[in-house]
Design brief:
Elements lengths: L7 H12 L3 H14 L4 E7 L5 E6 L6 H6 L26 H7 L2 E7 L6 E5 L4 E5 L4 E7 L6 H4 L5 H18 L4 E4 L3 E3 L5 H9 L7 E8 L5 E8 L11 E5 L2 E3 L2 H10 L12 E6 L5 E2 L10 E2 L2 H23 L26 H4 L17 H5 L13 H5 L6 E6 L3 E5 L3 E6 H14 L5 E11 L2 H8 L2 H6 L3 E4 L4 E8 L6 H15 L5 H16 L9 H13 L13 E5 H7 L3
Parallel strand pairs: 1-7, 11-13
Antiparallel strand pairs: 1-2, 2-6, 3-4, 3-6, 4-5, 7-8, 9-10, 10-13, 11-12, 14-15, 16-17, 17-18, 18-22, 19-21, 20-21
Bound molecules: adenosine-5'-diphosphate (ADP) and magnesium ion.
C-alpha cells in the first residue's frame, strides 16, 4: 500500500472523534464560540438530547462573508493572531470545532456582522453561501448528528442522559460567565449579570442558599495564585460530584489535581462517598498552566501541581475551620439530640467508696497503682462523679461493653475505657448507625405539628413524594399534597428539625431516579437518616460527658452498632495488654 494524504472530509471525521463526542460537546464548542464572539445573550435549544437538532443563537460579533467561508476550513481560527500558544484569552483556538461538527452532521450557519448590508447563510452540506435576512449575531444549526457515521450514533446514551450532559455543559459555562445570559430549551434561564451567589443557587438548587461559604485566598507561589468562589458547608453534600464546578483562568475544567485537593480539604468532615459542592475559580499566570493538553480543553497541565494542590487545600481548610467555630454549639443551645433516657455517670448513686470502684484489675488496668480514684475524670476535666454501685469493678462494666467515658479528643473521637481496653469511638459514625437502625425498625416516634410545614415543589416532585406516602409514614413522616405544587407535612419525627424542603427534594430526586424498586424503603431510611445525621452529631462538635455517655449506651443497644451505614467502623478497642507491650512491661 502506498502512502497517501487523507482527504479533508476524512481528516475532519477523525478529528470529530476527539472533539465531538455527543450533543453536549457540540453545544460546548458552539457556545464557547459564541462567548469568544463577545455575546452576552446565548439561547440554546436541543431536541432529543441533540440527536435530531441543536440550535444556538447568539448576539455576538457575527461574521463577514469571507470569515463565514473560512470558518469551516480545518485549522481556521481568528483567535491566534500572534502565534503565541501560551497566551490564550479565548475559549477555543484550535480551529477544529466547526469543520469537525460539519463532517458528522447537517450543519448550517446564519450570521450578520452589522457591517455588511445583509446577513449570510451557509449550507455546510453544499458549501454554498447566499445572502439572508439574518439581522445580527450568529445562529448555528446542527441536524441529525452522526447520521453519516452510524457507528458513532450507537454510542449516544438515552435522550435523557444526553440532555443531562447538555445541561451540565450549560451550567459550567453559566458559572464561568455570570455576566452572560443563557437560556436552555426555554426552561433553564440564567439572566445576564447575575450575582455569583444567585447563579450558584440557579445552577445547584434552592437548598444551597445560606449553606455556601465564600472563599478568597491568594498565594505568591507559582508566580501568584488566586482562589475565589464558594464551597459548601460540610452539612450540605451530594451523592456525586454533579455540583462541583472548577475553573482555571475562567475556563471550566475537570482536573484531577483540583478535584483531589477539594476532596483532601474535606477529608475530616465528609465521607469518601459524599461530595462537597463548589464553584471555585483559580487564577494563575498563563505561563504556569497549559490549557492545550486535550482537544476538549477540560484537562489542564499545571507546571507546579504540588504548589497548586497545597494552596487549595490550605485555603479551603481555613474556610472550613472558620465555619466549624461558627457552628459549634453554645451552652444551653445544643444542636444535638439523643434518644432514650440519659444514663450518665452523674445519674449514678455515689454512696460507695470510690476507691473500691477503681481497684486495680488483675490484668493491670488503666488505673492500676493510681492512688487518686478520680484521676481519670479530673485530669480530663470531666465531672468528678464516680460510677456505681456494688464495689466490684466487673459489675461496673457489665452490660457496658463500651465502658465509661474518659473524654473527647479533637471534637471528633470519644475516649472510654471498659477496664480491659481503651475504647475509641467515632462520634459521627456512632450517631449515624443509631439513627439508621431506628429508622429501619420504625422506632422513630412521630409528633403531630400544630401548623403543618409546607414545602413548595414542582408538580412532578409532588407526585413523586405522594407515590411513596406510605413508606414515609413508616418513617415517621405524615404528609399530603397541598395544592398542585406543594407538600404539607402534618407529622414529623419527634425532635427532628431538619431542612424539610431539602429532605423532600432529595427524596423526590431519588424516587424519580430509581422508581419504586424493592429497596425503596431501605433507601428512604438511609436518606432520612443521613439528613438527620448531618444536622446532629458530626465530627467537629464538642460534646459534654452526658451526651457522650448517652451516645455510648445507645450504640450498645443498637444492632450492627459496630459499623456505620457507610460500612466504616464506629469504634475500636485498644487492649491495655497491647499498651503494656508499648512500654515493654
Ligand atoms: P476556534 O473556536 O478554535 O477558532 P472553531 O472551528 O470553533 O475554531 O471556529 C472557527 C472560527 O469561526 C472562529 O475562530 C471564529 O472566527 C468563527 N466563529 C465560530 N463561531 C462563531 C460565532 N458564533 N460568532 C462569530 N464567529 C464565529
Ligand atoms: Mg471554537
Amino acid at each position: 500500500m502506498s502512502v497517501r494524504l487523507l482527504p479533508d472530509y476524512l481528516v475532519n471525521q477523525i478529528a470529530a472523534g476527539e472533539v465531538v463526542e455527543n450533543g453536549a460537546s457540540v453545544v460546548k464548542e458552539t457556545v464557547e464560540n459564541a462567548l469568544d464572539a463577545g455575546s452576552d445573550q446565548i439561547i440554546v435549544d436541543v431536541v432529543d438530547g441533540g440527536r435530531t437538532m441543536i440550535n444556538i443563537v447568539d448576539n455576538g460579533s457575527g461574521m463577514s462573508r469571507e470569515d463565514l467561508a473560512k470558518c469551516i476550513e480545518r485549522h481556521a481560527t481568528s483567535k491566534l493572531p500572534d502565534d503565541d500558544l501560551m497566551n490564550i484569552n479565548f475559549m477555543g483556538f484550535r480551529g477544529e470545532a466547526l469543520p469537525s461538527i460539519a463532517s458528522v452532521s447537517e450543519m448550517s450557519i446564519d450570521t450578520c456582522n452589522g457591517a455588511d448590508s445583509n446577513g449570510w447563510h451557509l449550507d455546510c452540506e453544499k458549501g454554498e453561501i447566499r445572502p439572508s435576512d439574518w439581522q445580527s449575531g450568529t445562529r448555528i444549526r446542527v441536524k441529525n448528528l452522526f447520521a453519516k457515521t452510524p457507528a458513532r450514533l450507537k454510542f449516544l446514551k438515552t435522550d435523557r442522559a444526553e440532555n443531562m450532559a447538555v445541561l451540565d455543559v450549560i451550567k459550567r459555562l453559566a458559572l464561568a460567565r455570570t455576566d452572560v445570559g443563557f437560556v436552555l430549551n426555554n426552561k433553564w434561564r440564567f439572566p445576564k449579570n447575575q450575582p455569583l451567589m444567585e447563579r450558584i443557587v440557579a445552577v445547584m438548587g434552592e437548598d444551597v442558599r445560606g449553606a455556601m461559604h465564600a472563599v478568597g485566598a491568594e498565594s505568591a507561589s507559582t508566580g501568584g495564585m488566586k482562589l475565589t468562589g464558594y464551597i459548601s458547608d460540610p452539612t450540605l453534600r451530594r451523592a456525586s460530584s454533579v455540583d462541583q464546578f472548577l475553573f482555571v483562568n475562567g475556563r471550566p475544567v475537570k482536573d484531577k489535581v483540583l478535584v483531589g485537593a477539594l476532596r483532601a480539604a474535606y477529608m475530616d468532615v465528609m465521607h469518601a462517598r459524599e461530595f462537597p459542592l463548589c464553584a471555585l475559580y483559580l487564577t494563575l499566570p498563563a505561563s504556569a498552566v497549559d490549557v492545550n493538553v486535550s482537544p476538549t480543553k477540560t484537562e489542564v497541565h499545571f507546571l507546579e501541581p504540588n504548589h497548586v494542590r497545597a494552596f487549595i487545600i490550605k485555603s479551603l481548610r481555613e474556610v472550613l475551620a472558620r465555619t466549624m467555630v461558627a457552628n459549634a454549639p453554645v451552652a444551653g443551645e445544643e444542636k444535638i439530640y439523643f434518644h432514650g433516657p440519659i444514663i450518665s455517670r452523674a445519674n449514678v448513686p455515689t454512696n460507695q467508696s470510690p476507691r473500691a470502684v477503681f481497684q486495680p484489675r488483675p490484668v493491670g488496668g488503666l488505673f492500676a497503682g493510681n492512688k487518686n480514684p478520680d484521676f481519670a475524670g479530673t485530669a480530663l476535666g470531666a465531672p468528678a462523679h464516680t460510677p456505681a454501685v456494688d464495689t466490684n469493678v466487673d459489675d461496673i462494666f457489665e452490660n457496658r461493653p463500651l465502658g465509661w467515658v474518659i473524654g473527647q479528643i479533637a471534637n471528633k473521637y470519644i475516649l472510654a475505657t471498659n477496664g480491659e481496653s481503651l475504647v475509641v469511638i467515632d462520634q459521627h459514625a456512632a450517631h449515624e448507625r443509631i439513627t439508621y437502625e431506628k429508622m429501619r425498625k420504625h422506632e422513630i416516634k412521630s409528633q403531630p405539628l400544630l401548623t403543618p410545614i409546607v414545602v413548595q415543589m414542582r408538580a412532578e416532585d409532588v407526585a413523586a413524594i405522594l407515590s411513596i406516602a406510605d413508606e414515609m409514614r413508616a418513617s415517621g413522616l405524615v404528609l399530603d399534597a397541598f395544592g398542585e405544587d406543594a407538600i404539607a407535612i402534618f407529622e414529623k419525627p419527634a425532635d427532628w428539625d431538619l431542612n424539610w424542603a431539602s429532605v423532600l427534594h432529595d427524596i423526590a430526586d431519588e424516587v424519580r431516579a430509581y422508581g419504586h424498586s424493592a429497596q425503596l424503603g431501605e433507601r428512604l431510611h438511609l436518606k432520612l437518616a443521613n439528613h438527620a445525621c448531618h444536622h446532629s452529631v458530626r465530627a467537629g462538635q464538642k460534646l459534654d460527658m452526658n451526651q457522650m455517655d448517652a451516645l455510648l449506651r445507645d450504640i450498645e443497644r443498637t444492632e450492627h452498632g459496630g459499623e456505620c451505614n457507610h460500612g466504616r467502623p464506629v469504634y475500636k478497642f485498644i487492649p491495655i495488654s497491647e499498651m503494656d507491650t508499648w512500654f515493654e512491661r
